Amino acid sequence: MNIGLNSDFSRKICVDYALSKDSQKKLLVRLSPLARKQFIVSRALVSFILNSDWGACASGYMLDDSVSPPSIFPDSNLYLSLSHSGDYVAAAVSINRIGNIIIAYKGERTDAAEKTALIAAIPALLGFDETVDQIKEARALDLANRQRVWDQCVTAGLEQCTKKDKE
What we know:
By secondary structure, the chain is α+β, with helices and mostly antiparallel strands. 46% of the residues lie in helices and 14% in strands. Strands 1-5-4 form a 3-stranded antiparallel beta sheet, with helices on one face. Strand 2 (62-64) and strand 3 form a beta hairpin. Helix 1 (8-15) packs across helix 3.
């Protein structure tokens, strides 16, 4: 789902949204008004998606901003993608690995401009601009983050995080 930062919908979802303590800390380092607005709206958008699209499945779920990129707590099996460009923010939550691309056109939107932007974005999304060591490091960090989220969930005693013995 993507929204404009200055839209009525953006204002509506941000009214009742409260940033977590970790999110508040991350917000403090964003100095530009645009970056601060993108940050707040993106977090409110994720909360809206969890509540409206995932319904009861999302009860008790929240955005974990203590890691970068942020993840969904307590379910390390939900994937999150946040993106922003100028006055637009996009967010997606899925049970599959996902990503999204926002193309901010400098001029008029044309098929040629879109094709050029996608040609530039796809290699980066596929990791072609990363070395094998960078990919291994990213995978190790991802595993460590998922383990940390699982450990937090178990420590919190949440039912969905208990291991069930096979009979």
